[in-house]
């Protein structure tokens, strides 16, 4: 909204000229998101406590986690509101990329909200029946995939169904309509990867903030003609507006981390983890960096892979590879303290982010 209100006033107040630039609006959106999350955090924590919306801890987890029972959950609402409101204020809402990203975030967040609601009302760690939860995610993901492919068919300058491989500049296969299924796979994998990582205080939100910051840089580069050409990246001018959305995610994440850092005062719940995962996956798809997401979100990949390996091993051999999955619980059970697990995973997330940026020129 401010994107439409402030630039016309520039002839009367020259300083408002800066509101035309993506860099300024990204910084403004990030700070707005940070301020919103910091201001609304105490109010939301208080309200969640009043309504007795507390975390339910499963009995088979690490014993140290039992003390976390009753801590307010569904804090993901704070993150999503703090990210979406600044996007609506500072981004060009006629941009189809921004609209898709915002709707995808809300849709995945709604699935998580339904799951959280059932957990709270049932006073159990089990929410939606797994097949229903996955089914809803599939419906949302395929809908997003269809929308994106429709963009590509409408105008190749808006989007492409080609797949870009890191390190290879000439291998760009066109998936055509199969891209719908590929996009759905990326979205569901990312959403559930973030969801599985959300098990320790501040772990998921801090690693997500690093991934979101990385995509803030990537969206700006891909929306910038000179930089995209220099790095041999696909240039989609509309993608530049996603920088504002990504910046809002970073600001909202940092604000939430203020209250979610160890020891946590609030948990994000599935409404946050699925919403943020859906947002990250959607941005990766829109800027044609779907495969680079594997490196950027390396922690999410490791966490999801540990669960897959654990389940497959137990079903095939009757033995467990890890003491417990997801991976962060394994390290807790072998003696690492929770802050140590969080800090070391955070270091890995930073390394993954830096490495992913170096791949842009290694082609």
Topology (SSEs and partners):
Layout: H1 2-5, H2 22-50, H3 76-90, H4 96-122, H5 130-154, H6 179-197, H7 203-223, H8 225-230, H9 242-260, H10 269-286, H11 293-296, H12 298-317, H13 327-333, H14 338-358
Helix pairs in contact: 2-3, 2-9, 3-4, 3-9, 3-10, 4-5, 4-10, 5-6, 6-10, 6-12, 7-9, 7-10, 7-14
Account of the 3D structure:
With 363 residues, the protein is mainly alpha-helical. The chain is built from 14 helices and no strands. Helix 6 packs antiparallel against helix 10 (269-286). The longest helix is centred in the first third of the chain and has 29 residues, at 22-50.
Key terms:
363 residues, mainly alpha, 14 helices, 65% helix
Give a concise summary.
The chain is mostly helical and 363 residues long.
How does the helix and strand content classify structurally? mainly alpha
Give the termini distance in whole angstroms: 40 Å
What Rg is obtained from the alpha carbons, in whole angstroms?
20 Å
Element-level helix/strand string: HHHHHHHHHHHHHH
Number of helix segments?
14
Q: How many extended strands? A: 0
Report strand %: under 5%
Overall residue-averaged pLDDT value: 90
The poorly predicted ranges are none
Biggest β-sheet strands, sense, barrel: none
Q: Tell the overall outline.
A: globular
Helix-residue proportion:
55-70%
């Amino acid at each position: 909204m401010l994107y439409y209100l402030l630039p016309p006033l520039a002839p009367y107040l020259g300083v408002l000229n800066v509101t035309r630039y993506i860099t300024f609006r990204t910084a403004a959106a990030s700070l707005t998101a940070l301020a919103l999350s910091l201001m609304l955090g105490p109010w939301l924590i208080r309200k969640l406590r009043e309504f007795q919306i507390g975390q339910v801890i499963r009995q088979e987890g690490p014993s140290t986690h039992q003390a976390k029972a009753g801590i307010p959950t569904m804090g993901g609402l704070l993150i999503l509101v703090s990210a979406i409101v600044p996007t609506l204020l500072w981004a060009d809402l006629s941009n189809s990329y921004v609209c898709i990203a915002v709707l995808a975030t809300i849709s995945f967040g709604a699935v998580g909200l339904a799951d959280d609601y059932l957990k709270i009302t049932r006073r159990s760690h089990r929410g939606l029946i797994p097949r229903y939860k996955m089914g809803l995610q599939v419906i949302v993901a395929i809908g997003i995939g269809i929308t994106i492919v429709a963009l590509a068919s409408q105008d190749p300058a808006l989007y492409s169904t080609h797949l870009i491989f890191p390190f290879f500049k000439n291998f760009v296969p066109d998936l055509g309509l199969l891209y719908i299924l590929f996009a759905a796979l990326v979205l569901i994998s990312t959403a559930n990867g973030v969801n599985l990582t959300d098990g320790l205080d501040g772990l998921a939100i801090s690693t997500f903030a690093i991934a979101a910051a990385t995509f803030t840089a990537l969206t700006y580069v891909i929306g910038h003609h000179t930089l995209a050409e220099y790095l041999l990246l696909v240039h989609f001018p509309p993608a530049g507006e996603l920088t504002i959305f990504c910046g809002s995610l970073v600001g909202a994440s940092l604000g939430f981390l203020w209250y979610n850092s160890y020891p946590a005062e609030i948990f994000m719940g599935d409404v946050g983890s699925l919403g943020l995962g859906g947002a990250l996956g959607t941005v990766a798809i829109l800027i044609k960096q779907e495969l680079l997401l594997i490196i950027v979100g390396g922690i999410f990949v490791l966490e999801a892979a540990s669960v897959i390996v654990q389940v497959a091993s137990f079903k095939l051999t009757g033995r467990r590879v890890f003491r417990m999955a997801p991976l962060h619980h394994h390290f807790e059970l072998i003696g690492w303290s929770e802050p140590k697990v969080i800090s070391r995973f955070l270091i890995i997330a930073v390394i993954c982010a830096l490495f992913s940026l170096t791949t842009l020129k290694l082609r």
